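Case 90 in the screening queue. Each case pairs one protein sequence with one candidate compound; here the compound is iron/sulfur cluster. For every case the pipeline is the same: read the inputs, emit a complex structure as tokens, and attach any notable structural observations.

Predict complex for case 90.
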Amino acid sequence: MSAQLDWQARGACRTGDPDAWFADNMTTAAAQRLCAPCPVRAECLTWALDTDERYGVWGGTTAAERLRIRRARSKPAAAPTTSDDSGRAA
Ligand code: SF4
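Case 90 output:
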């Protein structure tokens, strides 16, 4: 296993029913319950977002939740304002 994926060996999902993480009707609450105690949750979510993982539960999120995160990240940052705190143009 590459050092990049070492976190997977420490995941809470290494034991138990693997199908639970890929159930078609996984609810957000169920995903969060399964992943909540996982010591590598942050690494898992980062990996799923970075690799555009579109199936299953990763880092306590469903595919729909990750899509929302990706969309929020891809929105352009708000333009800086051109006025100072007094409301006057700078
Ligand atoms: S966060 Fe969830 S899917 Fe990711 S490694 Fe941990 S238990 Fe597995």
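Case 90 observations:
- The pocket of iron/sulfur cluster is lined by residues 11-13, 21, 35, 38, 40-41, 44, 57-60 (CB under 6 Å).
- The CA atoms of residues 14 and 88 lie 58 Å apart.
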